[in-house]
Amino acid sequence: MLQAVCLRGLLLLLVGRQVYTEQCLKASVNTCGDCIKSGPGCAWCKDLNFTKTGEQEAARCDTPAVLKEKGCPPTDIINPKNDFIKISNKPLKAGENPVQIQPQEIQLDLRPGMPYTFQLHFKRAQGYPVDLYYLMDLSYSMKDDLENVKNLGNDLLKELNKITGSARIGFGSFVDKTLLPYTDTNEAKLKRPCSDKNEPCQPAFGFQHVLPLTKDGDKFKSMVAEQHISGNLDPPEGSLDAIMQAAVCVNEIGWGNSTRLLVLATDDGFHMAGDGKLAAILEPNRETCQLVDRKYSKSTLWDYPSVGQVARKLEEQNIQPIFAVTKKMETVYTELSKLIPKSAVGVLSEDSGNVVNLIVDAYNSLSSEVIMAHEALPEFISVKYTSDCKDGEKPSDRGKCDNVNIGTEVVFDVTVTVDRCINSQSFLIGPLGFNEKLKVNVRTRCDCECDDINQPHPHCKEKGKVVCGSCRCDPGFLGQHCECQVGQKDVASLKAQCQKDNGTECEGKGDCVCGRCQCHLTEGGNNFYGEFCECDDEHCEKYANKQCAGHGKCKCGRCECNEGYEGAACQCAKSDEDCKIDGIVCHERGKCVCNQCECQRGYKGPSCKVCPTCQRPCQESGSCVECLAFGTGPFEKSCVENCKHLQHGEEIMSEFSKMFQLQKASCLTQQKLKLSTFTFLGLECPEGPNIAAIVGGSIAAVALIGLLILLIIKGVLYASDLREWKRFEKDRKHEKTSVSSPPNFTFTKVPSGSHL
After folding, report:
1. What is the pLDDT of residues 609-648, one digit of tens each?
2. pLDDT band at 299 (very low <50, low <70, confident <90, very high)
3. What is the C-alpha R_g of the chain?
4. Which of 61, 453, 638, 744 is a Cys-bridge partner for 35, taking CB atoms 3.0 to 4.6 Å apart?
5. What is the homologous superfamily of the domain 2-80 according to CATH?
6. Model's pTM, two decimal places?
7. CB half-sphere exposure, 374, CA atoms < 13 A
8. Where in the chain are the domains?
9. Residue 499 DSSP class
10. Which CATH superfamily is domain 542-573 in?
């Protein structure tokens, strides 16, 4: 156990001090202050002789390790660290004037980007006072509940005093806004909204504060006894209106330095921001106390607050709400509780007979949960928490501990980070539901403390002062050592002389001194050079990971190639042997670059021989062959004019042999051409199709298909008739075998003389 505590303490010490071995990502750095602001890994060397002639002051800024490696004495390295001072640090104690949080006020001097972690201790004190404000829904459906609440004052105080020696209770009530559609605005209904005429009923209202917090249980009982039920129209109530006023009216309610509990008793849901539009209320809730004669005066003028507004105000005032609701509303208020930190939900019995036990259980649950939080933080400040709740429990990356008993101390590691330089700021940190807070004062360390002598220094030619190792020249002087006297020219005109085409001063590779560039060293230790430091001999094009391909020298950023080589990186040998075929370079269809053919458009291949898109000679001359041999084709009437380049010849090049189809006949002509002659080899005309065979075959096929279809139809009809005949025969045989008796007839003698 002791080892674990020691290890945790060592880790916290290291985190608090933030030992940095990171790289220094410096941007534009001219002074020690610029360097410190560049990042937590940067340090500054104030040694007067640290920089070489022409070297920029930014070389003084780097990580401490690099500065030491370059020869800067450790005593001359400026590397500000975070600082932590406890302004108020009273020990934790219980009893009268208890102290539950330690320390109470601190001062943090933080370097931007460098976090600092400190410990915050909390211990629940025995006998810490409790204030409980009972906020009740007095709509007509809560009639039975009101009767029970009238008698719970002394019982509730008795139970709370078992936990703490100092408990107070107060009472308030609510219904809803007295506007349609929430409430019947008929004058008689406003005065008496209850449906039972014999029932005591008070006029409709939004919220009314009945009894400030008091230790007198009898007074609570008598004041609540005077309350009567009221009524409204729609089911949701003005609960959030009432909670907001109970939270912001601190003096009127009488909230003290105590654990503050707000009990909301209701059997229905709640209206929220935006619902006021139903009654043409467009003014948002202003989150301020508006009690006049203990009644909410802005009920009909301001919209309902949002859940977020209510949650924020409850947190600001350290009020912990307890939602005592009926079973049917449990789900609704459970979801609401998730949006409000340090809140609890309990289910009321039908007549609220269990409300005392409900409140006590909720209080025990809420008070045993410790959630460390902070108020709205100043800009550029961030805070994180790590909790160490009890012995043996693994620290958690959340500012929360559960089941914290009275007298149990818990520890939170609080990490504060400032992202950039800011003015002095303050904020509060503390456990939700408790009034005690830690005040954190934050300042940023963005300046260097170099202990310089404020007078002219020999290092600056007596024309300036030394500030953290660099010269701060007097007016009229410039330079690394203030060696340049400006004279009639101003600083801007001198710097303009160091800019090429109005670009960067000395191309960013040197310092402008007296209107001339003093160039810096390159990465390889050589100097940049040129009028504007635009040249160096280390940054030329590479080929095969070699500068100038190893066949040249780098001069002012460009390769100067050795004899026999060329190209931007000297990567090409001066030869065209690989481009030649039969002594012709690239078939005269391209040029030889780096001993390789670069073909003209349309040609490809190692020697530009291939032309995928070019037509063959026979294809190009097909129309001329047709007109010269047969007098047909596109050039029929202008054969001589268009085909002067082609004539009959005996010499045949077999590689140009091709078959062409004549345009006006179904014949093929075979020809063999050279580039300027052709030889007609013959005419091949394929036989035409046998029309009679085609027509006869088609008719026979149609007749065969038709006959097959008729046979199929005949077969289907025959099968159907056969089934019907068999059924008929079956019925007829059944009639023959049936036995039936002849009908009985009765004859009646008709008396004589009767007329039919």
Report:
1. 888 777 666 666 777 877 877 777 777 777 877 776 676 6
2. very high
3. 52
4. 61
5. ligand-binding face of the semaphorins, domain 2 (3.30.1680.10)
6. 0.60
7. 21
8. 2-80, 84-125+382-444, 130-367, 542-573, 617-684
9. B
10. Laminin (2.10.25.10)
